[in-house]
Design goal:
The chain is an alpha/beta fold and 702 residues long. The chain has 18 helices and 30 strands. It comes from Devosia insulae DS-56.
């Protein structure tokens, strides 16, 4: 991290974002003006060692005395300027300041004056707000954002000492059927607006591309407005946790020096490692651009208890896992009136940990030997509300890699190049169904040069436009072709072990068959391959008397083969998706075995011990850090973590780089010097205990 002097030197400079590493966001509600404690919030800035803040300014409600007609100013503001007061307090503390605007809704008077600014339903009705019917939802692609919000942004940037404008809920809420969207879409594409969200429908894909183009151009337009008033200033869009799927990547990279993942906490059975996944996804698209993780103090569920307080352990672990994978912590609190302050101690503790680790870890670059391909070409064809339907395959592979304690990156297939692939020894591709010919060629060359590939199900079965190929685009790598239509979904399926000596069969002693998936692709194998598992032909699951196999297992369920200098494992069934749904231990072991066989030689960083640990590694000159996040908890895949269960009996083993003959280790969180031993070119480190997390810093010498 920058020193204090370096951080201060970045104030109001084009590189201000480099020193913006710990964020506090205060999202005001309309009755906050005159009813909140300004000194309390300035004290929060101090206690958390925050060096940056995001503050509610305008849009749906203005928290400053706006002069713009139709820009609704809080009726509680009186003669005050709460936004200006908070900006002044932050600047007195040498903090970076970002102003938040929310353009997604307007009051009824705006809708009456400018109905053309309002989103229109497929039935031709002005879209009323789903939660507050007195408000109307705006059209993101037309005049409201382009004209009215441009003037709001200009007024804020001109009148206040800020570094950037951050827009929340600015990019629309589904297809808008207003006159502007109808005519502009027809003009640009020659089509009528889609009536269904179907990733295989060319009209739907055309709408997604049109929306990307319009919204990306809007980012550039708003960026220019901010910069015209504040030369060092920028516009920063809220992008959710979509890994930039809804925008043109190159343009957003050009305009935005820093970005934020708006994934405020877990919902349902989302695991803690999802915070780190957000960091990996963004890094896999945006490279080393700084990214913040927006974390809420409240419980994040569909029922929207925004004044609730999440458990301290939940807040702490969510932030720590994000930090381990390179995300900058960002606290967001809705409502400046504090009804329950139990969220503050875990934030202060976690921010203090970040401040302690940052001077060391910021000098090291995230690194890994394995990359999980983020199938962006496939996922971007789905609406953001529907992507969960397509992500199960990748989530299953992700969880299997975490269980296997294998450090790995995420790499978007949108930015995949030969050089990017060659940074890794293994590429895992859960189900990249949509791949272009060029992308398939890149993966083929990667394996032929010596890389390893583990993939499954429909990978490369469709081109980048969703058109089904007559055969896999990666058929030559698989050594197999499609022999018929995809089968399933079916119940009660199994795969049988074929032999007992292949490494992929390890750990299944005593079993002749294990659970299969629910969908599979029949294959015609035309290349040499090991087949450690074969499909048991499907048989009934009822009546009970009929539950038995009628035919021998013949069709390949796993292909493992040498291709050029590399190795390939292909599962012609939905192993990632079904593992994510069922989390069966045999599927975890099978994927683990496949990863290790494909690698061929031991991983550079290995870890052993009881429990579930998420691992991130970083490299620098003569140093490597191994960050272990303790996910071990009976509620690790549910929101309400109640406590942290310490882990004992943990070890880390790191292979020394060429030329290194000595190595030392230090534990950065506990500040202990651990017991170590140097054996066969590897440093073995014993960890006395991991509470929430530990960082092993290894230094090598000649």
């Amino acid at each position: 991290m920058n020193s204090t002097a370096e951080a201060l030197s970045g104030l109001r400079s084009p590189t201000w974002y480099e020193g913006a590493t710990r964020w506090t966001q205060l999202t005001l509600v309309e009755d906050d003006p005159g009813n909140y404690d300004l000194d309390f919030w300035l004290g929060v800035f101090d206690e958390t060692q925050s060096n940056a803040t995001c503050l509610s300014a305008g849009g749906y409600v203005a928290y400053y005395p706006s002069k713009l007609p139709l820009h609704y100013v809080s009726r509680h503001i009186g003669d005050g300027d709460p936004f200006g007061d908070l900006v002044a307090g932050a600047r007195q503390r040498n903090m970076h300041v970002v102003a938040r605007v929310d353009p997604h809704a307007v009051h009824a008077d705006v809708a009456a004056a400018h109905p053309e600014w309002i989103s229109v339903t497929a039935e031709g009705e002005l879209r009323k707000h789903w939660s507050f019917p007195d408000a109307y939802v705006t059209c993101a692609w037309g005049g409201y954002n382009r004209d009215f919000m441009s003037e709001v942004i200009r007024e804020i940037a001109a009148g206040y000492d800020i570094d950037a404008i951050f827009a929340n809920r600015w990019s629309g809420h589904g297809v808008c059927y207003c006159a502007h969207c109808t005519s502009d879409f027809r003009l640009k594409t020659g089509r009528e607006l889609p009536r269904r969200r179907d990733p295989f429908d060319p009209t739907w894909q055309a709408w997604l591309a049109w929306s990307r183009d319009v919204l990306t151009e809007l980012v550039g337009h708003w960026n220019g407005i901010v910069a015209s008033e504040r030369p060092h200033g920028r516009f920063i869009p809220n992008i959710g946790n979509s890994s930039m799927l809804d925008f043109a990547l190159d343009e957003v990279k050009r305009y935005c020096p820093i970005l934020f993942v708006d994934h405020q906490g877990r919902t349902g059975v989302v695991p803690i490692w999802s915070a780190g996944r957000d960091g990996k996804r963004m890094r896999g698209v945006m490279g080393d651009k700084p990214i913040g993780l927006v974390t809420s103090t409240s419980v994040e569920e569909k029922w929207r208890w925004k004044d609730s307080v999440q458990s301290p352990e939940e807040i702490r672990m969510w932030m720590i896992d994000g930090m381990a994978h390179g995300l900058r912590p960002w606290l967001t609190k809705f409502n400046a009136k504090v009804h329950d302050n139990r969220w503050l101690p875990p934030i202060v503790e976690t921010y203090s940990l970040h401040a302690e680790l940052e001077p060391v870890l910021s000098k090291l670059a995230p690194t890994a030997e394995i990359a999980l391909l983020d199938p962006s070409t496939t996922l971007r064809t789905w609406h953001s509300d529907d992507r969960d339907n397509a992500e199960g395959h990748e989530l299953g592979f992700y969880h299997a890699l975490v269980e296997a304690r294998m450090p790995f990156d995420l790499l978007s297939d949108l930015v995949m190049t030969d050089a990017a692939l060659d940074r890794y020894r293994l590429i895992a591709v859960a189900n990249a169904a949509f791949l272009s010919d060029a992308q398939c060629d890149m993966l083929t060359r990667y394996v032929e040069r010596g890389g390893a590939l583990v993939t499954s199900f429909e990978t490369s079965l469709y081109d980048e436009h969703g058109v089904q190929r007559p055969d896999f685009g990666l058929s030559r790598l698989f050594g197999a072709s499609v022999a018929g239509p995809t089968e399933g979904p079916v119940k009660n399926t199994y795969i049988a072990l074929d032999g007992d000596d292949h490494p992929i069969l390890r750990g299944f002693d005593g079993a002749s068959r294990i659970m299969g998936g629910t969908r599979r692709i029949p294959l015609d194998v035309h290349g040499p391959a090991d087949v450690p598992f074969r499909f048991v032909p499907h048989f009934p699951d009822l009546p009970m008397e009929e539950i038995y196999a009628r035919e021998p297992a013949l069709e390949p369920a796993v292909l493992a083969r040498q291709v050029g200098k590399g190795r390939v494992v292909y599962f012609p069934w939905n192993i990632g998706e079904i593992f994510w749904e069922v989390t069966n231990a045999d599927h975890s072991r099978l994927l683990d075995n496949a990863f290790r066989w494909a690698l061929g030689t031991p991983a550079r960083v290995q870890s052993a011990g009881p429990g579930i640990v998420d691992i991130a590694t970083r490299d620098g000159a003569g140093q490597i850090s191994v960050h272990l996040v303790n996910l071990t908890n009976p509620m690790m895949m549910k929101g309400p973590i109640r406590e942290t269960i310490p882990l004992r009996g943990q070890s880390v083993s790191v292979a020394l780089p060429p030329g290194a003959t000595t190595a030392t280790a230090l534990l950065l969180v506990s500040r202990l010097v651990p017991a170590t031993s140097l054996q066969a070119g590897r440093l073995h480190v014993d960890l006395p205990e991991i509470h929430t997390n530990e960082v092993v810093l290894v230094e090598f010498g000649p």
